[in-house]
Amino acid sequence: MDILLVDQLVPEALTWLEARHSVEYRPELADDPAALRKAAYKAQALILPRKVVVTRELLDFAPLLRTVARMHASADNTDLEACRNRKVRVIQATTSNIRANAEYLIGSLLLMFRPAIVSALSGARPDNRVGRELNGSVVGIFGLAPTAHTLSLLLRSLGVKLIGYDPAVHHTAPIWGRLQIEAVGIKEMMATADAISVQVMYASRYQGFINDAMLSHCKPGQVWVGLSRSQLFDPKALAKALTDGRIEACMLDGAVPGFAGPGTPLHDLKNLHLTPRLGSLTRESRQRSSWYVVHRVHETLTAPKGALDSIFSGPVDLDEPAATPAPAAPPAPK
Q: How many domains does the chain have?
């Protein structure tokens, strides 16, 4: 077996891959770590879903492994140092979901600006609260992760004024000008923006970064949307802001389990809306990520010995896709 496939590829990409390699499709292994370790023993490549964690222990059970591939961006579930030490290439389609995530944020902003639509969709009693339009509003871009680049373009086309802040990017950095976002301090962004979009590149030092002190500067009636990890938020501070009117509504994608569960300050708040990592879930992003993964896996398995050593010579990092999109259709099998 060349490739153990535990995630789902689009059919065309799977057909292309099966024409070139021995592929075993075993999606049930995602919920059976012991069986996965056993099956990985003869695999040269693993294509895994988000919930499967790659640890040193798993690598110990895969002596032939040359690459671990995923169709999502987060590296939290992969021991990158262990992979580099074993010369296992980590392939992740990190840019394939940018457009989908940006459109998710646009859709979330539109919904949060129209509370009556949200009420109608949830089956609640008719809500006659007057909504707002994005055109002419001020949106704070909180974080310059790649999604923010596409998001800023889309928002400008809707007539939105953009201001922004990123704790890791200096306000004089050229990127602000290229994206046509006015760089401001965090207090000014909070006090000025009608809405905040959060897509900060998370690091452990940012845990609880969005706290009482920061939210005390909110413009009353502000709405929030976001894709970043929920650990950025202090739950008590967010609950207080959602309750006292500083934040009118908030929609976040991919919050950790228990973030708003029973017994938490955020439980049962009607103006907090959580979705389970739906931002990147589009047919187009799935196609882009599938094609990227199969091409890089094929490249790895067919490369001469030592040809990819440069991947392991620098800092621990991900193997990221090029800016060009994957082909719409595969070349004919030889």
A: 2
pLDDT, mean of residues 43-65? 96
- Classify 295 as helix, strand or coil: helix
CATH number of the domain within which 209 lies? 3.40.50.720
Beta strands 89-92; 247-253: pairing state: unpaired
In a domain, 12, yes or no: yes
pLDDT tens-digit map of 153-182: 999 999 999 999 999 999 999 999 999 999
For the cut 70, the answer to whether the pLDDT of residue 110 exceeds it is yes
Domain of residue 19, residue span: 3-96+283-312
H helices within the chain, ranges in order? 11-18, 33-39, 56-60, 80-85, 98-112, 115-121, 146-157, 174-178, 186-192, 212-215, 235-244, 283-302
Which of 251, 275, 299 marks a domain boundary? 275
Q: What's the pLDDT at 314?
A: 53
How many Å apart are CA 228 and CA 112, to the nearest integer? Answer: 17
